[in-house]
Amino acid sequence: MSFLARHGYRMAVALIAFGILVMTNASAQDQAASGKVAIVVHGGAGTILRENMSAEREEAYRTALEHALRTGHAILTAGGSSVDAVVTAIQTMEESPLFNAGVGAVFTNKGTVELDASIMDGHDLRAGAVAAVSTVKSPIELARVIMDQSVHVMMVGEGAEQYAQTHGLELVDNSHFHTERRLLQLKRAQEREGAGEVGAVIGSEDPVEGLDEKFGTVGVVALDMDGDLAAGTSTGGMTNKRFGRVGDSPIIGAGTYADNESCAVSATGHGEYFIRGTLAHDVCAIMRYTGLTLVESANAVIHGRLTEMGGTGGVISMDRDGNIAMPFNTAGMYRGFIDVNGALSISIYND
Ligand code: ASP
Fold first, then answer.
1. Within a 10 A sphere around the Cβ of 140, how many other Cβ atoms?
2. Is the CB of 219 under 6 A from ligand 1?
3. 251 CA distance to ligand 1 middle (Å)
4. For residue 243, how far is its CA from the centre of ligand 1 (angstroms)?
5. Whose CA is nearest to atom 4 of ligand 1?
6. pLDDT tier for residue 144 given thresholds of 50, 70 and 90
7. Is the CB of 100 under 6 A from ligand 1?
8. Out of 13-27, 46-60, 219-233, which region has the weakest mean confidence (pLDDT)?
């Protein structure tokens, strides 16, 4: 019997099965690439209480969140990629002194600013991350260049800064990021530390402003016309941090994750818990492997795992259909979205 006669039937079955698989994949892609776009942003979660917030301050946050959303959304509606939208929206918040990212980032124990950021493309699982840089004007831009132009995922400190310089990124003096408000927060944290208050550095609340000293990280997730998801996060980390401490924000899987097969996630909160639980990836994994919806998966991670671990924070997340989930277990989280219908929403408190 010839090879073909012996194996022809099996080959035909295999070819048909392969064809069905390709067709199923293709139709799944067509379905996802509905031409609809959506974007979600966060500006950090923490002890954000209405009674501690002035009307002007609240308005300033709402305006900055809306600006980030509209900037990213304009890129998406013009046919730009979700990666472009994420980077550009985050840059508006890195430039705003309101958030703990770029200008207005928190101070380290040494009175300097050290920045972390990461980005991930859900289309092909490429990722870029940067940690502990102090002269790169836009850490999210550097994360993107690392993703696009290097063979690596993560670069830190001096090496990352050299890489930024050789790739023509703008470098600034560290004082570019400094603000009076954050300096005051550092002084208060150090006074309390000096007075022997244990835990003054991690998870403490600013007694004057009532605002959490470490939160204020920014993050964006976006869905573009091709049905591609992306996620990014940028932060100064924690007030009074030392020893080169790096949180979850630049760690792929902990603070940022995107996969077209499930969802895109950016986290904010007490980074050590997000690292230990690989919580951003967990949202995607629960969705992918259990068949739970995005909302169910994100809630399971924040109100289940994170809370059970004793951690605080939240995530913003979106799937390929443009479903959005933004759970948090803190008093508030600066957050907002423009959904697939173009509806804009901005919220701060837990109501
Ligand atoms: N997750 C950040 C960190 O631990 C802090 C934040 O989200 O505000 O560095």
1. 30
2. no
3. 11
4. 16
5. 271
6. very high
7. yes
8. 13-27
Angle of the 139-149 helix axis to the 82-94 helix axis, nearest 10? 150
Q: How far apart are CA 46 and CA 215, in angstroms?
A: 6
Alpha-carbon span 240 to 210, nearest angstrom: 17
Q: Is 248 in the pocket of ligand 1 (CB under 6 A)?
A: yes
**For this structure, is 88 an active site residue?**
no
pLDDT digits (tens, 9 = 90+) for 187-214: 998 988 877 654 434 444 454 454 455 5
Fill in the amino acid letter for 87: V
- The pLDDT, as a whole number, for residue 48 is 86
How high is the pLDDT of residue 178? Answer: 98
Question: Does the pLDDT at position 6 exceed 60?
Answer: no
* Rounded CA separation 61/112 (Å): 24
241 forms bridges with which residues in the sheet? 108
Query: pLDDT tens digits for 146-183?
Result: 999 999 999 999 999 999 999 999 999 999 999 999 99
For ligand 1, atom 9: residue with the closest CA = 237
Cα 46 to ligand 1 centre (Å): 10
Q: How far apart are CA 326 and CA 336, in angstroms?
A: 9
Please state, in angstroms and rounded to a whole number, the distance separating the CA atoms of residues 118 and 153: 9
* pTM (predicted TM-score): 0.89
Place of tokens 């443009």: 322
CA of 11 from ligand 1 middle (Å) equals: 53
For residue 215, which atom of ligand 1 is closest to its CA? 8
**Cβ–ligand 1 contact at 250 (below 6 Å):** no
What does the pLDDT read at residue 28? 46
Residue 104 beta carbon below 6 angstroms from any ligand 1 atom? no
